[in-house]
Fold this protein.
Amino acid sequence: MRTFRYERASGDEAAVAAMAASPGARYLGGGTNLVDLMKLGVESPDVLVDVSRLPHTSVEHTGPGGLLIGAALSNSDLAADHTVRTRYPVLSQALLAGASGQLRNAATVGGNLLQRTRCPYFQDPGKPCNKRQPGTGCPAREGVHRNLAVLGASEHCVATHPSDMAVALAALDAGVHVLSGAATRTIPVTELLRLPGDEPERDSVLRHGDLITHVELSAVPEAAHSLYRKVRDRASYSFALVSVAAALETEGGVVRRVRLALGGVAHRPWRARTAEERLLGEPATAEAFAHAVDAELAPAEPLRDNAFKVPLVRNVAVSALSDLAARQSDGTARLPEAR
Amino acid sequence: MEAPVHASPVTLYVNGTARELVVDNRTTVLDALREQLDLTGAKKGCDHGQCGACTVLVDGLRMNSCLLFAVARDGARITTVEGLADGPELHPLQEAFLERDAYQCGYCTPGQLCSAVGVLEEMAAGRPSAVTAPEHPSGQAVPAGDTEIRERMSGNLCRCGCYVNIVRAVDDAAGAQAGAGHGGSEGGAW
C-alpha cells in the first residue's frame, strides 16, 4: 500500500478545503470499502481526510414527518432507529440485509452510498477495467459476469452498484445533501448515482471534494407499508443477486400509491417508474404486478450468464408487492407500536 | 518527538490499558495489536473484512480490525480476546465454547468470541437483525435462538465447520445472560 498523509477534518469546510488542496486525496468514513481497495491497489490516495468524526451522526425529525440522517451515522444505528423502523421499514430492512454485524457497525451512511462495485475485474488491478482505468476495456462482458448488470449497462461497463441501502433510498426519493465548495445542494439519490455510459469511471455525479453531509427523507405515507427483499447465493452475508425495495398503499383492492426500486441489476439502484405508472389505479393483484414489472424489464439486455436475473427480479418484485397488498387487505400492519 | 508525515502518534486503550504508539498511517488496528502490542489473539484470516477472524470490540462495538486504520481510531477503547476473561475467570462465552466444543482448529475462535460478545450486547439492547420481526418493539431485548444467532454471527466464518456447536454455545451464554437478568456489561455503547 502506498504511504499517505492523514488529516482528521475539524469541520465540513475544513474537510472540503483539505480535499481541494490534494487532487489525490480521498475521504475516509468507516473505511470498510476504501481500506480494502487500498490493500488491493485499486485506490492509492496520498492523503486521507477523515470525516468519520464530523458531527453528522444523528437522525433528526424535520417538518411534517421527514427525517434528516447524518452521513457519518453507522449503518447499524440507522437500521435500529425507531422512527426508521416504524415509518420507513424498507430502509431498516435493507440496511440489515447488507454485509455483517461487524461491517454495519463501522460503515457510514455516506460511505455506503459511495461504495464501489464488487465486479471482480474492477477489484483486480492486474486486469483491464474501464471503470478503474478508462480505455483499457471491459473483460466482464465476455468473462465472469453472473452477478453483473442486466439494465442500463453500456459497452464500456456492466458493473452493478452493490448497496442495499441505496435501493431503499431510491424507492423513498431520498435527497442527498452535498457540500460542494462553499455551497450546499440537495441531489435526489436517484440522480446521485449514474449509469456508466461513456464515463464508467464516474459512479456518481459528485466531483472531487464534494462532501455528503446528510440524507433527507420526506414524509412518505405509503412507506409505512414497505419492505426490502434480497436474494443471494447464501442465506446471509453476501451481496444481492437481485433485490427489491417496495412500498404499496391500496384502497378497496386498488393501487393508490406504489414505489418500486430494483437492486443488483444496474450501475445504480433501478427505480422502476414504468412499473409504478402502470400500476396506479390498477387492481393490486399478482397478475397486474407481473404485467407492470415485465414492462419495466422489457429493455433488459442480459449477458451470457446473468439472464436468470430478469425472471428472478420479476418474481421477487411480484412477491414483494403481493405480500404488501395481502397485509393491507387483511389488516395486518407488521410494524412496532408508534411511541 | 515529532512523527514523520506518514506516521502518527496514537493512544489505544487496549483491554483497559492505555497504549501509546507511533504507527505508520497504513497500520491497521489488527497489525498494531499483533505486531506492536504482541496481542496475537485477533487473527489475520483474509485481511479483507470477509472472514471475521480479526473481530475485536471498538468502543463496545464489534468490528473487523483489519479494515480499521489505527490512526483513525486514536483514543478508542479496544477489547480483544485477551481481555475477555476476568483474571482466572473465563468469560461466560469462553466457558460455553469449551463446554460445547465449539471449535476444532481454533483459528477463528477469538473472532467468534469477540463477535458473540457484541451479539449478546446487541440482542440485550433490542437492536434488530435481518431476521428480527419488523414488529418487534425497538429497544426491547431480542430473544436468542438459532435463527437470530446464525444471522448475527454470519460475519464469522469457520473453515472447520463448527457452526452447529458455535450456535449452541452462543445460545447457552445468551440464556445465562437473560437468566441473570442483566443486559451484559461489555459494551454499554447504547
